[in-house]
Design a protein that fits this description.
single chain; 304 residues; 8 strands; six-stranded mixed beta sheet; binds guanosine-5'-triphosphate; Rossmann fold; alpha/beta; binds magnesium ion
């Protein structure tokens, strides 16, 4: 006798003549990076480093520099993040203290644009946390994110960045990295800059990536770097990414999460993997931006 299969009625809903399976997982689950497969060991770190180098190699051959500008509110962890990237990319055992890290939340410790070269063709600029200031003018924000300022200059007390001596001295920003503390309410002046980022990115002029820091304060299991491999399966992390994605108005796959070194003097392999994973996303955004710029320029030249 043949078997008669019956589908329990609570597992299907019918719309018209179609039958759709009912969602079994009723719990709200966010899917940020759930399918990401990385090896949390030396082999995994080497693989990520190799991928980053490969992505950068055409730019290195052309001797083209990718400018990565790190911005964000005071004390969100910008300088610490840059130190983390430098530690990992230069494969240092001791945690790099190249960019000075502050402890005050009311005034930015970093006062000007500071920079370092990574992987021969990437320049990483750490910026003062001035964007929540009411003094900064929208046109200055635009000048900065469009590279129309001197990235080696100071930002004066009126938040005016130094313009370059000549217009040719413009530095294109390949990727803007917006650093935020998870769960933070975006101050009104920061919303202003985010609007400018969206506008400029929407015009095809800017790549960007969002980095959340302070992972160890979001879920205490991440105080121990051994647990970093649980990052993508932590419900509280998923919730924080969802929140920031809505606040900033950017898709979750343009967001990375890190735990900066601030208690340690020695680096560790799990932190290396996490920094490399975040850096790879930034490099992808930067390379795509420069490829886009080159395609636009070639199309414009062909029309002339
Ligand atoms: N627990 C924890 N503390 C962090 C993290 N990142 C940064 N910090 C701490 O946050 C404080 C500010 O860090 P900075 O790296 O100086 O932040 P910044 O954004 O460069 O600050 P300004 O230059 O002053 O705007 C320091 O006390 C850091 O040790 C993190 O991931 N976890
Ligand atoms: Mg700083």
């Amino acid at each position: 006798m043949g078997v008669i299969w019956s589908i329990p009625q609570d597992l299907v809903t019918s719309v018209g003549n179609w039958m759709y399976p009912v969602e079994l997982d009723k719990e709200e689950t966010y899917y940020w990076n759930r399918n990401t497969q990385i090896k949390w060991d030396k082999e995994g770190a080497d693989e990520l480093l190799r991928e980053i180098k490969e992505r950068l190699s055409p730019f290195k051959e052309k001797k083209q520099t990718l400018n990565i500008l790190v911005i964000g509110p005071t004390s969100c962890g910008k300088s610490s993040l840059c130190n983390g990237f430098k530690t990992t990319l230069n494969q240092k055992k001791e945690v790099v203290q190249f960019f000075r890290v502050g402890r005050r939340e009311d005034e930015s410790y970093t006062k000007n644009f500071q920079f370092t070269t990574l992987g021969d063709c990437v320049t990483l600029y750490d910026m003062a946390g001035v964007f929540e200031s009411r003094h900064i003018k929208t046109e200055d924000i635009l000048s900065i994110i469009q590279g129309r300022v001197k990235f080696t200059g100071k930002i004066d007390d009126f938040m005016n960045p130094t313009p370059p001596a000549t217009s040719e001295a413009q530095n294109n920003v390949s990727c803007l990295v917006l650093v935020l503390k998870p769960g933070m309410e975006l101050p009104v002046h920061l919303k202003r800059i985010i609007e400018q980022i969206h506008k400029t990115a929407g015009e095809g002029e800017l790549g960007y990536h969002v980095i959340l820091t302070h992972l160890d304060e979001v879920d205490h299991c991440f105080k121990d770097t051994q647990n970093l491999n649980k990052l993508f399966s932590s419900p509280v992390v998923q919730k924080k990414v969802e929140y920031i994605s809505k606040q900033v108005g950017t898709p979750p796959n343009t967001i990375s999460f890190v735990r900066n070194y601030c208690y340690e003097t020695q680096s560790d392999i799990n932190s290396d993997v996490l920094f490399l994973h975040a850096f790879k996303q930034i490099i992808n955004a930067a390379c795509e931006q420069e490829e886009k710029r080159a395609e636009f320029a070639a199309a414009a030249a062909a029309q002339d």
